[in-house]
Amino acid sequence: MSDPFFRPVSGFDLPRFAGVPTFMRLPHVDPAHPRFADVDIGIIGVPWDSGTTNRPGPRHGPRQLRDMSTMIRAQNGATGVRPFEAANCADLGDVPPNPADIMDSMERITAFYDGVVAAGITPLTAGGDHLSSLPVLRALARNGPLGMIHFDSHTDLFNSYFGGTKYTHGTPFRRAVEEGLLDPKRVIQIGIRGSAYDMEDRDFAAATGIRIVPIEEFFARGPEDVMAEARALVGSDPTYVSYDIDFVDPAFAPGTGTPEVGGPTSFQALQVARLLSGVTIAGADLVEVSPPFDASGGTAFLGVSIMFEMLCCMTGNGTT
Ligand code: MN
Ligand code: MN
């Protein structure tokens, strides 16, 4: 049972539209807070989009995700899980990036997550663009490479952009494999689709053993079958979960920089996250929500709903 200090503020005590918004109305426990070491799962904002190559905006993601997350209640209606009672959950605040310097920002992010890992906290990240995952993985994989279940319409396995730029939101997992942060034989990428410049990313996946599930296969087999394969592929060893909101069809998630049509519904988006149950989740992220393209807030609401599903799986997975 969690410590009552770490329970969210109930909408019956303070209406959901009132108060200072924190992730899921949890206490704000930054690294200087006296209860920091008691946190099991920490939700962290990475307000940073310097890796974005097309339409920007995910630097505004954590703030809008926090706002929409006040809609999340204490119990999972589908599974019955009450994550805030199962583990000490908290909002650890935002990593302060340097918006003018990519390399400095990545060092700042890794340093923040080093402190999180040292305190025994499992991080759940709200991005930020997808390059955010790389500095997080650098902190999480210090004891050896992780597996990864990756939901996205893109592989993010490209080598470089604009004639040699190695760090963009299209390259993080290429770098992560090269740096030994991920075991490519325990990586599965689900939902891949859309037009491409070339197949260089697919070639890298084939050469290293990364499993790609294109959207056509996802729909032909169905979420349950694909997720059963994903769970078997990563096994019981520590696994990172990276969830790009552009995995979802832009009819349901228009607020993102690089949308691709022909994707899963909002129901399927939650379903695949729920089917992570049983995976040893070393950390998870939800990235690429871009509030400037999300006029209704619906993309952010779907994003935090996916984060809630992931959190429910994290509270029961043995890493907390
Ligand atoms: Mn991505
Ligand atoms: Mn993507």
Helical residues, percent = 25-40%
In CATH, the architecture is 3-Layer(aba) Sandwich
Heterogens: manganese (II) ion
CATH superfamily: Ureohydrolase domain
Largest sheet: 8 strands, parallel
Query: Based on helices, strands and strand pairing, what is the structural class?
Result: alpha/beta
| Structure annotation, total helices | 10
The sequence of SSEs as H and E is EHHEHEHEHEHEHHEHEH
Strand tally is: 8
Strand content: 15-25%
Rg measurement, Å: 18 Å
CATH class bucket: Alpha Beta
Q: According to CATH, what is the topology?
A: Arginase, Chain A
Basic shape:
globular
- Strands of the widest sheet, in order across it, are 2-1-3-8-7-4-5-6
- In round numbers, the mean pLDDT is 97
> Which residues sit in consecutive blocks of at least 5 with pLDDT less than 50?
none
Which features would summarize this protein structure in a list?
Arginase, Chain A; binds manganese (II) ion; single chain; alpha/beta; 8-stranded parallel sheet; globular; 10 helices; 320 residues
Which SSEs are present, and which pair or pack?
Layout: E1 41-46, H1 61-69, H2 83-86, E2 89-94, H3 102-118, E3 122-127, H4 133-140, E4 146-151, H5 172-178, E5 182-192, H6 200-208, E6 211-214, H7 215-221, H8 223-234, E7 239-244, H9 266-274, E8 281-287, H10 298-314
Parallel strand pairs: 1-2, 1-3, 3-8, 4-5, 4-7, 5-6, 7-8
Describe it.
- The structure is a single chain.
- With 320 residues, the chain is α/β, with parallel strands linked by helices.
- The protein contains 10 helices and 8 strands.
- The chain has an 8-stranded parallel beta sheet with strand order 2-1-3-8-7-4-5-6, with helices on both faces.
- Helix 1 crosses helix 10 (298-314), helix 3 runs parallel beside helix 4 and helix 4 packs parallel to helix 5.
- The longest helix is centred in the middle third of the chain and has 17 residues, at 102-118.
- The radius of gyration is 18 Å and the shape is globular.
- The model has no long low-confidence stretch (mean pLDDT 97).
- The structure holds manganese (II) ion (2 copies).
- One manganese (II) ion is lined by residues 130, 152, 154, 156, 169, 244, 288.
